[in-house]
Amino acid sequence: MRSSITSSPISPLLRRSFLHPRYLCHEFTIPDKSVISESPVSENASPSLATKSLDEFTSESNSAEKPTSEVDPNRNLCSLSTDLTQAHVINTLLSHKNDPYSALKYFKWAERMRGFIRGVDSFSVLLHILMGSQETHGSAQSLLSLYVSGDSGPSANVFVDHLFDCAKRFEFEPDSRIFNYLLNSYIRANRIRDAVHCFNKMVEHDILPWVPFMNILLTALIRRNMSREALDLHHKMVLRGVFGDRVTVPVLMRACLKKEREEEAEKYFREATVRGIELDAAAYSFLIQAFCKKPNCKVASELLKEMRDMSWVPSEGTFTSVVTACVKQGNMVEALKVKDQMVSCGKPLNVVVLTSLMKGYCVQGYLSSALNLLYKMNEYGVSPNKITYAVLIEWFSKNGDMEKAFELYNRMKITNIQPDAYVMNWLLHGLLKFQKFEDASKLFNEAVECGVANTFLYNTLLNSLCNEGKVNEACALWDNMISKDVVPNVVSYSSMILCHCRKGALDMAHNLFTEMLERSVKPDVFTYSILIDGCFKKGDVKRAFNVYEQMMAVNIAPTDYTYNTIINGLCRVGRASEARDELKKYVKKGFIPVCLTYNSIINGFTKKGDTNSALEVYREMCEGGVSPNVVTYTSLIEGFLKSKNMALALKMRNEMKDKGIKLDVTAYGALIDGFCKGRDIVTAYELFSELLEVGSSPNTTIYTSMICGFRTLGNMEAALRLHKRMLDEGIPCDLITYTALVDGLLKEGKLHIASDLYLEMLSKGIVPDIVTYTALIKGLCNKGQLGAARKVLEDMDGKGVAPNVLIYNVLIAGHSKEGNLQEAFRLHDEMLDRGLVPDDTTYDILLNRKAKHLYHSLADWSGKENRRMNYRMDKEKGDQVGSLEYPFMGPRERSNKHLNGISEPKE
Q1: Pairs from 308-311 (Cβ < 8 Å, separation ≥ 24)
Q2: Is residue 124 part of a domain?
Q3: How far is the C-alpha of 514 from the C-alpha of 521, rounded, in Å?
Q4: What is the residue range of 189's domain?
Q5: pLDDT tens by residue, 407-446
Q6: Backbone angles phi, psi at 884, to 5 degrees
Q7: Which single residue of 160, 475, 649, 796 could bond 801 by disulfide (Cβ 3.0 to 4.6 Å)?
Q8: C-beta of residue 139 within 8 angstroms of C-beta of residue 181
Q9: Residue 884 pairs with which residues in a beta bridge?
Q10: Backbone torsions φ then ψ of 71, nearest 5 degrees
Q11: This protein's superkingdom (predicted)?
Q12: Structural domain contains residue 907
């Protein structure tokens, strides 16, 4: 291919210093044609010299330099034998422009002469002369190959410029072949960068590289992961109307696939088809790979069939790609079909295909099929690798079959495949998920010993400990991590900060945050959000907003999670109105609130009893196109029930039904509890029955609400029936359930049944609390069982439960009612000894008129007034309590006992 030479001037010839001393160029000026002298080569030169082969000439030139006498026949070839200049050599070469053999012989002779240094221009002139004859093209190619394979010479850019410039100066018709020979020489010498420079220079001078050489260069670039450069070179050719041939297309497609540009690969295929290029199997294979990477297994399978219809046998890699794509898209039927085609075409199944099929089975829940495929691998002559075991271990761990997961793990080690952090991590995940902390600890220690415990693995265990609230264990693991030189990342720090925030250790969390900044670990938005949430949980709103402002200052954009954290935090601390205002600001910044956002604000208002504001937010929510869910309605229902607005609560429940939102157990529980507390046990029982009809199971809380409702109305028979139903259905009774039953039975005087239930509660390991003990003592005292009540008090002491003023009031009232004033006052003194402060009720019981006749030795009214005055005076003097002396204390002297809070005697 020839190209015309543009008339634009070329920049002055560049100077080049060669590494080899022989090729050091001196500065020179190429002579004008007017000063070029007659050729020093004699026209009568020996024909034998002019017709020597290149090999002979090369051998001659590489031999030791001969004495002058031995080259006597050639003396006429040169006017100066010892000082040849570039101008002389170029002059002589040009004089034999039409005699390439003589020019080549002279150039070789000149190179052997002392004082002559090969120049780029003289060499360029020689190459142009050699290209003048078809017979010397081979000599030009050989010279270029030797020249390029050496360690000296100018850069490709300089050389191409010189070749081009010499053609202009000395009126050679530029032959694109010499430039393409040079390009090919660079490629064959593995000088790819120089080849690229040569390619670019050729295009710059409108000398187009030949398509075969272009294809070779593009392939070489792609093999060196220089796909971007390859595509750029081809684009330059396209701009000049050269698209390439059928070989170019798969080369370009391969480059696109390496850059993950599947659409562009497909585009090259389509364009070539439109241009009428008959593409081969390689192009189809790359197109199939492009669709497999999307993935689009349907089209990939169709193309695979098209290849087989054209009698092409797809490669093993092509079949593998299609199987993998089918598995990724969950099309196991097609994946197995392609696998069978692969076998029928004589292609062996490989570990990638079999591992992909195993993963497909696992994803669809057929773990036994995946395991069977593992056992059949030997039949196919394939050995499982680390990825095969990793896939199976991952899915058996996910499904909770830790026994099989560890069986595979041990089998993996037996076959000398070292488990990596990925395998260890899934095993660790499985153990932690099923609360097997001891086994998890052993596995983790094994990973540390094997040297595979990396930051990723540490984070898994660290996150689990933090979620379990095991702060001490998490801190110990953190110290171990640092001691092993495992560098914590942002996830590690975030987990520890979350751990401290959940425990309310906000200062520790902030210390860790400061440490990560000092270690140049950049916090992410999740880290900041954790801190903000921790501050709100501690009620430190100011600090929470300081953290938010700090996040904004370092240009970390808040996410929806951050905004929801702030809104929920404000509602949690009782500032729902402020949360509502913040929401409006965030919406202006592009935040799109979701149901969760509105639920937080609605719940915040209902907790404050502000149902009107809650309803306003509910309307805003609906008007904004956000559909309320069951949590929304449950919050509103709880608010209405709290404010005794039963009608609105039922209205919300009906609205839920109209919108097709099913009430969950929590919603039913809120309604049932509300109506039970409102003494509307009929509606509560209707809701309870409805809950059963929809197929839901009432939980402990709902049963307890119903039992409390029946107890309030004195219907203990119904309460006991519910209790029996709980036991029959295996629903556990909690402390509140038993307390309600015992209290109700004692009120009805059914001491025996109450005692049995109390013992049943104790047998289940449920420890009574102060409320339970109060109900017991109150019930026993009301029925005159003062001795039993006293034993309950003693039992409290034995269990370390301190009685309160209410319990003593009940006991004192019981003894006062029975006329046992001595024991009543002894109990009064006992409560003082315990540090309890009697209240008005205590003295109302001791000093009321109904009991006056039972303690006639008590001082008269004025005496009581005096004691009250003494008490008040003592209190004004700074004493914690006043002092009283009772004249009727009996055998035990009760002097200087301290009382507090004496109430006015009631008439």
Answers
A1: 308/341, 308/345, 310/281
A2: yes
A3: 10
A4: 85-209
A5: 999 999 999 998 888 999 999 999 988 888 888 889 998 8
A6: -135, 150
A7: 796
A8: no
A9: 897
A10: -110, 20
A11: Eukaryota
A12: no
Q: Assess if residue 798 is contained within a domain.
A: yes
CA distance 313 to 304: 9
pLDDT at 900 over 50: no
Which one-letter DSSP state was computed for residue 453? -
H or E segment to which residue 897 belongs: strand 897-899
Closest CA to 810 of 782, 844, 835: 782
Verify that 668 and 639 share a domain, yes or no.
no
- Measure the CA–CA gap between 23 and 146, rounded to whole angstroms: 14
Cα(900)–Cα(840) distance, integer angstroms? 9
**Tokens linked to 115:** 């004082």
- Asked if 630 and 669 sit in the same domain, the reply is no
Q: Are 428 and 457 in contact (CB under 8 A)?
A: yes
Rounded to 10 degrees, the C-alpha dihedral 495/501/507/511 comes to 10
Number of domains present in the structure of the chain: 5
In sign, the C-alpha dihedral spanning 74, 75, 80, 81 is: positive
Q: How much helix, strand and coil, in percent to the nearest 5, is found in the chain?
A: 70, 0, 30
Tokens 């149902």 -> residue: 611
Task: Give the domain-ending residue among 602, 626, 655.
Answer: 655
Say if residue 739 is in the same domain as residue 790: no
Residue 56's pLDDT is 40
Q: Is the pLDDT of residue 39 over 60?
A: no
Report whether 279 contacts 270 (CB < 8 A). Answer: no
- Please say if the pLDDT value at position 874 is more than 50: no
**Tens digit of pLDDT for each residue in 600-611?**
999 999 988 898
CB 105 within 8 A of CB 73: no
> Is residue 606 located within the same domain as residue 706?
no
| CATH code assigned at 741 | 1.25.40.10
* Separation between Cα atoms, residue 772 and residue 513, nearest integer Å: 45
Contacts of 641 (CB under 8 A, 6+ apart): 649, 670, 671, 673, 674, 675, 677, 678
